[in-house]
Design a protein that fits this description.
CATH superfamily of the largest domain: Response regulator
Helix content: 25-40%
Order of helices and strands: EHEHEHEEHEEEEHEHHEE
Number of helices: 7
CATH topology of the largest domain: Rossmann fold
Distance between the termini: 29 Å
Strand order of the largest sheet: 2-1-3-4-5
CATH class of the largest domain: Alpha Beta
Shape: elongated
Radius of gyration: 20 Å
Strand content: 15-25%
């Protein structure tokens, strides 16, 4: 089930840019332009993140943040503000809580992933085998096969490929991959680049219909069928 991001803003140009990036990353996007519509949408739709800007009633993103934080039902809702901190009075907000326009795509995606607070790769319960086209991965035995031919992967290579396979066809943000594979303490994305290159060398050049790990500039990586 994709996570939902609610855009609360009358700036349709900003909304359009956000929607394009978020939907490319696999998020479900909703949009409102008024305060009443905001509350209605939050009551009707489970929402993981609100990106709050200016509404038709003249309320800005910081006002929305304060209103939602004072309501018990919405107090724990993740919120990013479409604005720029303008005074020392704003320092009680985290710097990453503000989105400026125009925004850098990779920074925007990182802010979204961090705000939603995706958990690390370690979860309770056993991981299940995945079969995606010619690819088969079994985390219980660490088996990795393409067209029934085994490929030898290191622990981290397997973990990275397994997560990409779970999200097959979806562009996975770089920050999300770092969190899922290496955990929150590792932020050096050159490590991710190196492991993607290793996977490509092992899996893409041996078959006539290979799987490709496609780079989406400024966003992340996508596992998809090649041709």
């Amino acid at each position: 089930m994709p996570k939902t991001v609610l855009l609360a803003d009358v700036d349709l140009g900003f909304v359009r840019k956000c929607r394009n990036v978020l939907e490319c990353c696999g998020y479900r996007v909703t949009h409102v332009s008024g305060l009443d519509a905001l509350f209605d949408e939050l009551r009707q739709t489970p929402t993981q993140l609100v990106i709050a800007g200016h509404l038709a009633s003249g309320i800005n993103g910081e006002d929305i943040h304060k209103v939602l934080c004072h309501l018990p039902k919405f107090r724990r809702l993740n919120i990013l503000i479409h604005a720029t901190p303008t005074s020392e009075a704003d320092t009680h907000y985290r710097a990453n809580s503000f989105i400026c326009d125009p925004f850098d795509v990779s920074t925007f995606v990182r802010q979204v992933v961090d705000a939603i607070g995706r958990s690390g790769v370690r979860k309770s319960g056993a991981l299940e085998p995945i079969s995606t086209g010619p690819l088969y991965l079994d985390p219980r035995t660490h088996a990795a096969m393409i067209h029934e031919t085994e490929i030898l992967l290191s622990r981290l290579e397997f973990r990275l490929l397994y997560y990409l396979a779970k999200q097959f066809g979806r562009t996975v943000p770089r920050r999300e991959l770092m969190l899922k594979v290496w955990g929150p303490r590792h932020t050096d994305e050159s490590l991710l680049n190196a492991y993607v290159m290793k996977l490509r060398k092992k899996m893409e050049l041996r078959w006539s219909d290979p799987l490709h790990i496609t780079t989406v500039p400024g966003v992340g990586y996508r596992l998809q069928s090649g041709g």
